[in-house]
């Protein structure tokens, strides 16, 4: 579980809605960090030879391309909260 300082001294009781959405938020955090290998499927799982399966999985993970639209979306929407309508000053 997520804690404030890594020493399990954060919030002890979590709200049920927070718990419900925690996995989604973790995926977003991982996407922002570029840590997406854990979400790739295991292509070597059905291979009879474990050595070949590990090699195939490693090639699959190293060849994956991450465009990281999540990070771009977050960066682009950061200023929306502070956006203001243009003001016109007509005083002479």
Detailed description of the structure:
The structure is a single chain. This protein is mostly helical. It has 3 helices and no strands. It is elongated.
Write the layout of secondary structure elements.
Blueprint: H1 16-33, H2 50-62, H3 69-77
Main attributes of the structure:
single chain, 92 residues, mainly alpha, 3 helices, 43% helix, elongated
> Quick one: how many beta strands?
0
Q: Assign the structural class, choosing from mainly alpha, mainly beta, alpha/beta, alpha+beta, or little secondary structure.
A: mainly alpha
Task: List SSEs in N-to-C order.
Answer: HHH
Q: State the assembly state of the protein chains.
A: single chain
Largest sheet: none
% residues in beta strands: under 5%
Give the termini separation. Answer: 60 Å
Query: How helical, in percent, are the residues?
Result: 40-55%
What is the count of helical runs? 3
Mean pLDDT: 79
Radius of gyration of CA atoms, rounded to a whole number = 22 Å
Provide the low-confidence segments as ranges: none
Label the overall shape: elongated
Précis, in short:
This protein has 92 residues and is mainly α. The chain has helices spanning 16-33, 50-62, 69-77.
